[in-house]
Structure formats: C-alpha cells, structure tokens
Design goal:
Length: 301
C-alpha cells in the first residue's frame, strides 16, 4: 500500500522528532531505543523529507522505491525544495540523522558532506538530462530566440557556480549576469548566428528548483543581450508543461528527462518541440549526511 504524503509541518518539526527518538533522558525506560541502538527508521521517525508533490522524484519515491524496497511503513514528507534544504541544514548543523530526496546538480553537495544511498534495484535510473522544451511555432515566430534556446548547452560545473552564488545571497539575476560575463567563450556558442531582436517578448516558464532558477536566469540574461524582452514566469511543474503545450509560454529550460517529467512528456507529447538536452549528468536518489552509518536504500529496512 502506497504511503500518503505528510504535511509540510512534519518537515519543519523533524528535528524535534529526531531528538525524541534518541531517548536522551538518562532515566528513560529500557524499552525505548536510544540513539545508539535505534534503527535508522526509528531515528528519523520513518520519514523521508521530500519536495513539491508535483515532482517526478516524489512520485518515483512513493510509488516505486518504497514498495520495491519493502518500505511501506515509511512516509515521504511533502513540501518544497526550499523546505527540504532548510530541514537538511537544521539536521546537519546538529549532526542529526535525516534522509532527503536529492538530485544533482544542487548547491547542497558543495555546502555539506553528503552521499547518495546506493540503489541496487536501479529504480532511480542512471543519469538524467535536462531538456529545453519550446512551444510549437516558436521557430517561425521568433527564429533567433529559438536558435539561442536550441544552442543553449552547459556543464554541471557551470550551473553549480550560478547556484552557489545564489545560495550565498547573490540575487539570481545578478548571479546569472556575473556568470555570463565570466564565461563569454561558452555563451558565444549559444549566440552564434543569432541576429539582434527588436524588443519582442519571450515568456520562459520555470519551476522554483534551484537548478532551474539558475538556468532560467542565465537564459534570460543571454536573450536580453540579443534584444529580447524576457518575461520569466514561475509556476509548478504541471502548469510549466501545460503552458508550453498550449502556447501561453514560449519555452522552458528545466525539463528533467527521461524520468522526473516522464508523465508530463507523455501527456503533452506532440504539442511541443523538444530541443534536446541542455545539461547532461544529473542524478536522482535518496541523500543522507556522510556521518550517517548507512550506505544503501536496502539498509532502511
């Protein structure tokens, strides 16, 4: 039986539950597990801290990972990328156990010593790509914007630089501008053969995931540098795909495939143009701090 999603309140109070599981009172009952004897599940109250419910990572974890690994007693906490990061920081700062749904690239791997739990069943799959998806007719309506989007391609170390700048407090637009100015050789490959526009509006849809925020603002900066008026519109994953499919948005550079957004791809197939991968080498899975004595999802049983 699939486990229900738990409200975000659970994520914000997770550390309190973890401390309670530790049985820190010296006079506690011998029947209560102490931190040293409790199983991993008992230490984290059988909860995995997740992100927004519309993410394919959440669906994959709930519908496939939990039942396939016999973790029917576990819950996945519904929230957001920001709430997950906040819960992770709080637990990490106190060296408390925590399990989160994770993906790379993400700034958390530069900020904390973390590790993916091994996935011997291969449910999370191999490396994913992030694709650029455009509305049908964009090439005819705005050929130069289409060309920039089609040629947009970078490496994990590039996007992680932008993500880290944002995490350290730099405004997303300023972080994007800084990266663009420092990487003219990369950017020039995106603008090769592009003519200057005359202020035409381009609507870029994006979800509030750290990597997509970074990539969307970089693309905004580059499109504006060649004369477009870019309107960045933050939405959830479903409306992002629907908007490109129905033409109310021009494109997104944050489509995770083939796993995370597989359902949306199938639902709207034929109603958009897939411009291919703009980032290769992503990863999905369950992530824990390196100080936790656990290495595999199978260990959660």
């Amino acid at each position: 039986m699939l486990k229900k999603l738990v409200g975000i309140t659970s994520a914000l109070t997770l550390s309190l539950g973890l401390a309670a599981c530790g049985g820190t009172e010296t006079g506690g009952s011998s029947e209560e597990p102490t931190e040293s004897t409790a199983s991993v599940g008992e230490q984290v109250d059988y909860e995995i801290v997740g992100i927004d419910p519309g993410a394919g990572l959440m669906k994959l974890t709930i519908e496939n990972v939990l039942p396939e690994y016999g973790l029917e007693d576990w819950d996945v906490v519904e929230g957001s990328g920001a709430a997950m990061a906040a819960a992770l920081k709080k637990a990490y700062d106190n060296e408390e156990p925590i399990i989160v749904t994770g993906w790379s690239p993400h700034w958390k791997f530069a900020s904390y010593d973390l590790k993916y739990l091994e996935d011997p069943k291969g449910i999370y799959g191999g490396a994913e790509d992030v694709h650029t998806i455009a509305r049908q007719g964009l090439k005819e309506d705005h050929p130069d914007a289409h060309l920039v989007l089609d040629q947009f391609n970078w490496e994990p170390q590039h996007i992680e630089t932008v993500m880290n700048l944002i995490q350290e407090g730099t405004d997303a637009a300023e972080a994007a501008a800084q990266w663009v100015s420092e990487n003219e050789d990369v950017v020039s490959t995106w603008t090769e053969g592009v003519n200057t526009a005359n202020g035409e509006e381009i609507k870029i849809l994006y979800v509030a995931w750290d990597d997509v925020i970074a990539s969307s603002h970089v693309v905004e900066n580059v499109l504006e540098s060649v004369g477009y008026d870019v309107n960045l519109i933050q939405v959830d994953a479903g409306p992002m795909w629907a908007g490109v499919a129905d033409g109310s948005g021009d494109a997104t550079v944050g489509a995770w495939l083939p796993t995370t957004h597989a359902d949306y791809y199938a639902e709207y197939d034929g109603k958009f143009e897939d411009l291919g991968s703009n980032l290769h080498g992503t990863k999905l899975g369950l992530v824990v701090p390196a100080y936790m004595d656990i290495d595999s999802i199978e260990d959660l049983k």
